[in-house]
Amino acid sequence: MRTVLCYGDSNTHGQIPGGLTLDRYALHQRWPGVLAGELGDAWHVIEEGLSGRTTVRDDPIEGAGKNGRTYLRPCLMSHAPLDLIIVMLGTNDLKARFSQPASEVAMGIGCLIHDIKELAPGPGGRAPEILVVAPPPMLDDIKAWEGIFRGGPEKSRELALQFEIIADSLEVHFFDAGSVAACDPLDGFHINHDAHRALGLALAREVEAIGWP
Predict the structure, then answer these.
(1) For the chain, what are the domain ranges?
(2) Class of domain 2-207
(3) pLDDT per position in the chain (213 positions), as tens?
(4) What residue stretches are annotated with the SGNH hydrolase-type esterase domain (predicted)?
């Protein structure tokens, strides 16, 4: 059995658009659950989504626990050996409090890739396969979140290109979630159950396409 870790934020956790933080889609509706259903019994899919998680940044309001880099290493060690790690982060780095351009959000993704390769939590102490997923762009209307994500929608439309550049330079796999899924108008930055399904199905095909020995 192969193992894949899905490492992300609220759109991996399955937060329902327009709802509260703990309003969450059922396991089989979230994209990691859809992925598990598609890959079948030959794969163990681990869901590791946290609302508000950033790539490498401590959140001065929500706390240091939102830093995706801080938690990544113990998470990898806990679940090793891992054949594949899917990383879908970046949206929370666009909060106005961080003042980060899309290119530096991509650099944060690059740091996570370096950390994964350095730890080498794959079978036999090797580096696992890594799939970087650019999150779907935010909508222009993000309702009550406009002040928190001021300037974020425009930057979010640049993430896919910047993530692809980083992924190519570090020789890992890349997928643009925006090619199959869009954020829901209820809040403008979370994906609904239809988008979760579309993303899970698309990622299953990406996983199958990797040249597994």
Answers:
(1) 2-207
(2) alpha beta
(3) 999 999 999 999 999 999 988 999 999 999 999 999 999 999 999 999 999 999 999 999 999 999 999 999 999 999 999 999 999 999 999 999 999 999 999 999 999 999 999 999 999 999 999 999 999 999 999 999 999 999 999 999 999 999 999 999 999 999 999 999 999 999 999 999 999 999 999 999 999 999 998
(4) 6-198
Burial of 69-92, coded b for 16+ CB within 10 Å and e otherwise, reads bebbeebbeebbebbbbbbbbbbb
